[in-house]
Write a structure and sequence with these properties.
The structure is a single chain. With 92 residues, the chain is an alpha+beta fold. The chain has a single domain, classed as protein bp1543 (Ribbon-helix-helix fold, Orthogonal Bundle). It contains 3 helices and 2 strands, in the order E-E-H-H-H. A two-stranded antiparallel ribbon has the order 1-2. Helix 1 packs across helix 2 and helix 1 crosses helix 3. InterPro entries: RHH_dom, RHH_sf.
């Protein structure tokens, strides 16, 4: 997995930055596009709901929940673009 990608944004009038893996940014960008909102507004909403959790962790969890709840085609990806699944290994 490539390194972290840092983005700067304003949250509640304060400049901040969030560092996430590119794969998480891609999911958050897809979420914002599907919701017809900006990435900054999506992250502001995540920030408003995160409580005492770190913003980057909350962004990752939000992206993960979205990925698990939305079929591949609805996220704009065909199943062929996904990495191959690992075969089931029988336990002895």
């Amino acid at each position: 997995m490539p390194g972290l990608k840092k983005r700067s944004l304003l949250l509640g009038g304060h400049a901040t930055s969030v560092a996430l893996e590119p794969e998480f940014w891609a999911v958050l960008e897809d979420m914002s596009a599907k919701r017809k909102t900006s990435l900054a507004k999506l992250i502001a909403a995540i920030d408003g709901e995160r409580g005492d959790h770190l913003l980057a962790s909350s962004c990752r969890l939000t992206a993960l929940a979205y990925s698990l709840s939305v079929p591949e085609r609805a996220r704009g990806r065909s199943p062929k673009e996904q990495p191959p699944s690992k075969p089931d290994v029988a336990q002895t």
